[in-house]
Amino acid sequence: MGIETTRADRKVNKELREFPKATNTTSRSKPRKSRRPQKKTSPVQKLFQTCKEVFANGGTGTVPSHEDIERLRAVLDKMKPEDVGLSPDMPCLRTQGARRTPEITYIRLYESEKFSMGIFCLPPSGVIPLHNHPGMTVFSKLLFGTVHINSYDWVVDGPSYTSAQLNPSETTAAARLAKVKVDSDFTAPCNTSILYPADGGNMHCFTAVTACAVLDVLGPPYSEPDGRHCTYYREFPFTSFSGTILLHARV
């Protein structure tokens, strides 16, 4: 998803930022005769390590193997709110005033040039606008609550329409035909959803039916220098072809 950090809840478990660090393999110190029992790997640490392996050779437009996708999906499917220190009664998820636009909280867990991990916390009626994920593979796990998802993929070799054809006052960009991939409510617990560079609903919009939290893994993450710019879109009804809609990039 493509919204920058708003504010992070300070009660998030410290464990989220304690990922394994590289060890110094050139150390000359003698190994200890006795070692302490290793701590059990936490769900967040396991997620981090799996992402690190799955996206090790990733880049723009590179999709992990089917085996790696299923491996990461299996880890995410088991993630629970308590694994990341979240609950539906967090202050940032309370219903806000009717005249205020619901504020969305983004908690950044980790980000590198290979992948990113983060959580979107949406209060009731909170909306993450329709946006794309250029050259990216994205895993989204609903931790709790109910969210409505609209997602689309571009129609290959579909016609383009100038803005003037849609609205004479707008003449700077073109609208493209997109096909509807998903238009449904999802309630936790549910399976992890996955989108790909060219299919799976690469452009999506999230609307919170109830307070909810979505754990996102992006591989690779957004990057302006690498051509992975987040673009937001407006939707225009289109009745000429069933199951399609016109999307116009916001300037």
UniProtKB/TrEMBL annotation:
Biased segments, Basic and acidic residues type: 1-20
GO molecular function: cysteine dioxygenase activity; metal ion binding
TM ranges: none
SUPFAM superfamilies: RmlC-like cupins
Basic residues composition bias: residue spans: 29-39
A biological-process GO annotation: detection of hypoxia
Renumbered residue ranges of the record's region Disordered: 1-44
Organism superkingdom: Eukaryota
This protein's UniProt keywords: Iron, Metal-binding, Oxidoreductase
Cofactor(s) in the UniProt record: Fe(2+)
EC number from the UniProt entry: 1.13.11.20
Enzyme class: oxidoreductase
Zinc-finger as UniProt keyword: no
Reactions it catalyzes: L-cysteine + O2 = 3-sulfino-L-alanine + H(+)
Entry's family note: Belongs to the cysteine dioxygenase family.
PANTHER family linked to this entry: 2-AMINOETHANETHIOL DIOXYGENASE, PLANT CYSTEINE OXIDASE 1
Protein's recorded name: cysteine dioxygenase
